[in-house]
Design goal:
Blueprint (H helix, E strand, L loop, with lengths): L4 H4 L2 E5 L4 E9 L3 H9 L1 H7 L3 E3 L6 E4 L4 E8 L3 E5 L9 E10 L2 E10 L3 H7 L2 H19 L8 H4 L3 H20 L4 H15 L3
Antiparallel strand pairs: 1-2, 2-8, 3-4, 4-5, 5-6, 6-7, 7-8
Helix pairs in contact: 2-3, 4-8, 5-7, 7-8
Pfam families: AHSA1
Organism: Acrocarpospora corrugata
Protein name: Activator of HSP90 ATPase
């Protein structure tokens, strides 16, 4: 498949205020139990995302290797889980909710990330700061559901490939469109898209 087509398969929404929310929604051609297992079972997560460890139950904590960690707040198989999503030494409020629902022969996947982002960071990058990262993650999930042995692209080198740069640029512009639809002035959106693209795909 042309992985850049994956960008067009998703819908994106942005909302702001004291906390900013990015929402990505798309349908996978897989049964809900398969998508749920891919998103919650450690042995499958390490195949398309990253190794996950911890006390993986409601009230327990988790840690993604080299990435975020937090507390498991809700888990309602096979439809919903909510976790705190904490990264860095002094993280503010950050919470991720994944919701699944049957959609014909497939599964509607919705990921909502709500966080208190520093004003200067939101002004500079907008929703693409987290949105592009989630698009890259969901690309890994897409590849895994198509072929269980496929892995998430290596973020350290993906931006150096033509395909990777096209994917990142398309993702950044898609989040820019969602930012614009949320009422952000066009000049601010254009600057945020340029900054986000340069961050994820530096020359």
């Amino acid at each position: 498949m042309d992985i850049v087509d994956e960008i067009a398969r998703a819908q994106r929404e942005v909302s702001g205020g004291t906390r900013q929310t990015v929402l990505v929604r798309r349908t996978y051609d897989a049964e809900i139990t398969d998508v749920w297992a891919a998103c919650t079972e450690p042995e499958r997560l390490r195949r398309w995302f990253l190794p996950v460890s911890g006390d993986l139950r409601v009230g327990g904590t988790y840690q993604i290797e080299g990435n975020a960690g937090g507390e498991i707040l809700r888990c309602e198989p096979p439809e919903l889980f909510t976790v705190t999503w904490l990264f860095g030494e002094n993280p503010g409020f950050s919470e991720v909710e994944v919701r699944l629902s049957a959609d014909g022969d497939g599964t509607l996947f919705e990921l909502r990330h709500t966080a208190e982002m520093p004003t200067d960071m939101w002004s500079k990058y907008g929703p693409g700061a987290t949105g592009v990262g989630w698009d890259l993650t969901l690309l890994g999930l897409s590849l895994h559901l198509l072929d269980g042995d496929s892995a998430m692209p290596d973020e350290a080198t993906f931006h150096q490939t033509d395909e990777g740069r096209r994917f990142i640029t398309a993702s950044s512009h898609a989040w820019g469109a969602a930012h614009l639809a949320a009422g952000t002035p066009p000049d601010q959106v254009a600057a945020a898209v340029a900054n986000t693209t340069a961050f994820y795909a530096p020359e």
